[in-house]
Amino acid sequence: METEKNTRKLDRKDILGIKELSVEEINLILETADSFLEVSTREIKKVPTLRGKTVINLFYEASTRTRTSFEIAGKRLSADTVNITASTSSVVKGETLIDTARNLESMNPDIIVIRHSAAGAPHILARVLKQSIINAGDGAHEHPTQALLDMMTIKSKKGAIAGLKVAITGDIAHSRVARSNIHGLTKMGARVFLAGPATMMPYGMEKMGVTVAGRIEEAIEDADVVMALRIQTEREKQCIFPSLREYAAHFSLNKRNIGLARKDVMIMHPGPVNRGVEISPDLADSASSVILEQVTNGVAVRMALLYLLAGSGNA
Amino acid sequence: METEKNTRKLDRKDILGIKELSVEEINLILETADSFLEVSTREIKKVPTLRGKTVINLFYEASTRTRTSFEIAGKRLSADTVNITASTSSVVKGETLIDTARNLESMNPDIIVIRHSAAGAPHILARVLKQSIINAGDGAHEHPTQALLDMMTIKSKKGAIAGLKVAITGDIAHSRVARSNIHGLTKMGARVFLAGPATMMPYGMEKMGVTVAGRIEEAIEDADVVMALRIQTEREKQCIFPSLREYAAHFSLNKRNIGLARKDVMIMHPGPVNRGVEISPDLADSASSVILEQVTNGVAVRMALLYLLAGSGNA
Amino acid sequence: METEKNTRKLDRKDILGIKELSVEEINLILETADSFLEVSTREIKKVPTLRGKTVINLFYEASTRTRTSFEIAGKRLSADTVNITASTSSVVKGETLIDTARNLESMNPDIIVIRHSAAGAPHILARVLKQSIINAGDGAHEHPTQALLDMMTIKSKKGAIAGLKVAITGDIAHSRVARSNIHGLTKMGARVFLAGPATMMPYGMEKMGVTVAGRIEEAIEDADVVMALRIQTEREKQCIFPSLREYAAHFSLNKRNIGLARKDVMIMHPGPVNRGVEISPDLADSASSVILEQVTNGVAVRMALLYLLAGSGNA
User: Fold this and answer.
1) B41-87 tens-digit pLDDT
2) Which of these, B4, B141, B248, B310, could form a disulfide with B110 (CB 3.0-4.6 Å)?
């Protein structure tokens, strides 16, 4: 393991999106993540890899799982982790994002992990700062670490991604998870089908190399993987869809419609799950669900990225 | 010390309440805490005991002292500590407590410390998760680490708990501190007297093995220990009592009524103190007050629990 | 470096303000900071100096840069750092500042860093607690670590502070940064000129050994250093000045008025900058601006103070 990790390097400063990653880079990240998976199951879950490195988690949007996952990943690599959340930050004092970033840069961190409601915010930081930037979700644009952990989960269960049929269902329009996964899965050779309410399906998705299904059943049929996206219930009042109930009636994954998929179908969800909305409770807890493996792999993927960016002589 | 710690183990996964702990278990915890007390007074306040262990502090209610106490306890044992507070967590996104917990579980922590406004929340987690759960306060139910630090404080000052008269005064009905202490102190052989306004005294407390005093003077008379509970002033508007002033006039501990107790009476309070409400300022700062020793012992008790659950080959 | 650091000590428990520091003390702090500056540029940015020490950051006011700077400083010295912010603290439960402090004291931290909206809050803590207190900003009173990092920045660029002309412009009345810098810079032998709107200039500033300029041009003329203070835009509604636009028209630093200063003038700002208000964007980003060096030096100054108070056998 050590040998492999020390000889192959990621030749980029930042992880901003899956769009710009090559198949080789994705494979390197997934293999590195595989090798870190075991650290979290040891008696002593800690390696000295990033001792003396500083990782700043700069979160402009609330998040439990992603921030905690990055924080745990950093700590298990022995990095110093510093959390900054918008509510306690100087953004309330009217400082620009770039000024905040330059200030953090001046404290000599090694990596800044940023989540921001504005698409492109991490890219601005990456252009301006000498440090490595990891996009932890920017608006409805990309969420690359989520797609990487999703691909890691698929690969570990199915052996390979190429040739699989993957259905992504729900609110495609507002989902950075969908966008990152579409980039990644098509690159890796999967056939991706999208299904969702018309108001949640952007025009021209076919240009991304996917098939837009007329009905959810068409997407699910013979699928190897079905990934339900989160409905942001706080958007309900914006009238994108009439009611959660109506959404659930047509687009919830359940024991009935999942019967159309392959017997060994994997059911995925980026979380947090609205039970009974995107997915029926029994299905979320079924043997087909890999929702919790996704979370476990998330820590490993983030350890891999922190290591590849800051720990392999790259930073 | 090391020998003793390594040979005796706590044979349980979780610390949910004092109710289910045996006298032997309480003694083991208190003795282990005694041995950790000294760590916090060293030049280098840190032992490698829990290196590579992850402790998550999951707080659904605001808290300075308890969260900080657990965080310091974890850090002095070299554990990686991660704080999650409700205001920044995905609870705002509508995820169920169990889903949140299962997600955290999937990141392979060793211990989850939880405070929640709902009685029983830690028990749900304990049933569902393979990790150790420590209840840091659940609704009006239990606050076991508070009772353990209270018992540690009493034992260190009085030598033993058995045979002592302990008065607990104030809002018994809403106090998890009272409930945990009643379980613990009666188990350990103390005679417990309760006193408080009728609206704050639940029916049938005698079944817990305590005496409900008609007047506060009856509870205090000849007491070895008097423990004043916190009045949650934010409840005043709920009309449980007419005014803080009236409460103080009848139930505040002061130099006058404390004269009824034994000369060497110990005065305790779980904090934060509303000075002039539960206790007069001069008494809170008097030589009889052990309020700050309670806080010091709190760190030691929490170190002991983290150690016994995660560090003694138990986890 | 080690020799020097081990032989000279700061003979005080707390850092509450620049007013009470001697020139020798300021020089010791600045020299110690210089020696720590290099740690943050190493491959492994961490020294074991404060291993097993506990530093509590107790922030009653929002702050990104100062809290983060202290946290990074503590972590790079291997201290355990614990953050407490007012919004999640027991202050909401009505506890007094002294009681909160005494409680923290009882958990045996080594240093408490406090920011508070009330002038004098750190001084109360310093009197009551045995631990070292560092003032991270108290009301409009002092912000000593800011002045120290400012002096460090001036000294590193100009070689010495004595004899320099320093202009401080803007909201003098509400600025703890101004007050601390006036104390420090005059002590170190600089000639300090103040300029700002009449409503923002307290009477009798001359008693502090400075010159109050009638017009901003008078302050800037031939200045070696120009320090623009932050306008707290949230105060605008209090009618201290008619509008940001009007303020900017008269008091913003820009390419034009800065032409009056010396060719090698240094432009400083404590941040966060309101671009176009206190300082024009082109000037903030010009070669004359040392705003980001100030931030870098901030980490070094805070490392120095943590070290001098807790790490040199002083604590």
Assistant:
1) 999 999 999 999 999 999 998 788 899 999 999 999 999 999 998 75
2) B310
Residue pair C198/C257 in contact by the 8 Å Cβ criterion: no
Residue of A36, A63, A65 for testing the chain B interface, max B β-carbons within 10 Å: A65
**Residue C240: other Cβ atoms inside 10 A:** 16
Q: How far is CA B281 from CA A226, B278, B300, in A?
A: 64, 9, 27
The dihedral formed by the CA atoms of B130, B131, B136 and B142, expressed in degrees to the nearest 10: 30
Is this model's pTM higher than 0.90 or not? yes
**What Å distances lie between residue C236 and C240, C243, C245, CA to CA?**
6, 7, 11
Helix and strand numbers, DSSP H then E, in chain C? 11, 9
Q: Are A297 and A149 in contact (CB under 8 A)?
A: yes
* B250 φ, ψ (degrees, to nearest 5): -100, -30
| The predicted structure's pLDDT at residue C237 | 56
Measure A177 CA to nearest chain B CA, in Å: 16
Residue pair B205/B186 in contact by the 8 Å Cβ criterion = no
Token code pair at residue B63:
């808290």
State pLDDT tens for residues A191-231.
Answer: 999 999 998 999 999 999 999 998 999 999 999 999 999 98
Look at the block and give the residue holding tokens 């959390």: A83
- CA dihedral sign, ordered A6, A12, A13, A19: negative
Check whether the bond before A197 is cis (ω within 30° of 0). Answer: no
> How many CA atoms lie less than 13 Å away from B162 in the CB half-sphere?
3
Cβ contacts of residue C212 below 8 Å, gap of 6+?
A: C193, C194, C195, C201, C205, C206
Q: Which residue is it, tokens 């770039």?
A: A98
B97-105 vs B121-128: helix crossing angle, rounded to 10: 40
User: What are the chain C neighbours of B69 within 8 Å (beta carbons)?
Assistant: 107
Distance CA B249, CA C66 (A): 45
Q: Among A109, A113, A9, A133, which residue's Cα sits nearest to residue A50? A: A109
The verdict on a CB contact (< 8 Å) between C41 and A108 is: yes
Chain A CB contacts of B90 below 8 Å: 62-65, 271-272
What percentage of residues in chain B have a pLDDT greater than 70? 90
What Cα–Cα distance (Å) separates residue C123 from each residue in A308, C61, C114, C224, C309? Answer: 47, 17, 10, 34, 16
Whole-number Å distance between alpha carbons of A13 and C28: 39
pLDDT of residue C89: 46
Least Cα separation, residue B287 to chain C (angstroms): 15
Chain C adjacent subunits, 3+ CB pairs under 8 A: A, B
Measure in Å the smallest separation between the Cα of C231 and chain A Cα atoms: 10
Q: How many residues does chain B have?
A: 315
Of B82, B100, B108, the CB nearest to A71: B82
Helical packing angle, C97-105 and B291-306, nearest 10°: 50
**Residue A93 and residue C62: Cβ atoms within 8 Å?**
yes
Rounded to whole angstroms, the Cα distance separating B301 from B296 reads: 9
